[in-house]
Amino acid sequence: MEILYLIIFFILGTILGTIYTIIGLRLPNNEKIFAKRECKRCNHDLSFIDLIPLVSYIINRGRCKYCRGKIDILFPYMEFFTGLLFTVAYYSFGFSYQLLIALGMISLLMTVVVSDLTYLIIPDEILIITAIYFIIIQFLDLGLKGVFNQILSGVFLFIVMYTVMLIGNKVLKKESLGGGDIKMMFVFGLILDPLLGTLSIFLGSLFALPMSLYLMKRNNEKVIPFGPFLLIAFVFIYFTKITPEGLMKLLGL
Ligand SMILES: [Zn+2]
Description:
Elements: H1 2-26, H2 55-59, H3 74-93, H4 97-119, H5 124-172, H6 179-189, H7 194-217, H8 227-240, H9 244-251
Helix pairs in contact: 1-3, 1-4, 3-4, 4-5, 4-8, 5-6, 5-7, 7-8, 7-9
């Protein structure tokens, strides 16, 4: 029953979507991950029944059961999109190592979207856990030599991004890239080869362009959270299985 699996992956995604949102909000603040969630307005503790992903939000029509105040829209959005992407991942890859990698990528994306957009931080813990997870999966799938090549690719992409940062700092005369973006390229290399990984930086910049222009137009000095755009590029490249040639064409290179 294919449809049953699609539903299971959607539900799994909504549950993990809640968890990734909590991690993204709490980890950069050194808050306890497993602390109770409460209503931001009335501080009433929320019980299990108030926190069922998507369902509680819909049943309570977006309002707190206790004070009728509006609930932050972030959680239902994150739950829905994580569920959707998990479903697409299963649909695209079936039960395979590629599915495990795709789910890891989505998990990284959703957590970083929250932490980078909220605090402009990509926590090291998240990158380390993801790197270990990818290394294990790649070892199981590709063997020792294969995983070693991916680690080399990661080191290469780290150096590329570090160089981009150095050049960017010189040209812009301010901090151009966050440390998290540079470290994250090592994680990309564990999955992508050096060429596709390098192209992912270009594609991520392209995705970030509208937001950059918007912020520049508003004359805002704010740093742009680049992490989510890099990750969208990473997911796009992996899911579409685009070749380096195809991607260069797309980028007009
Ligand atoms: Zn309340």
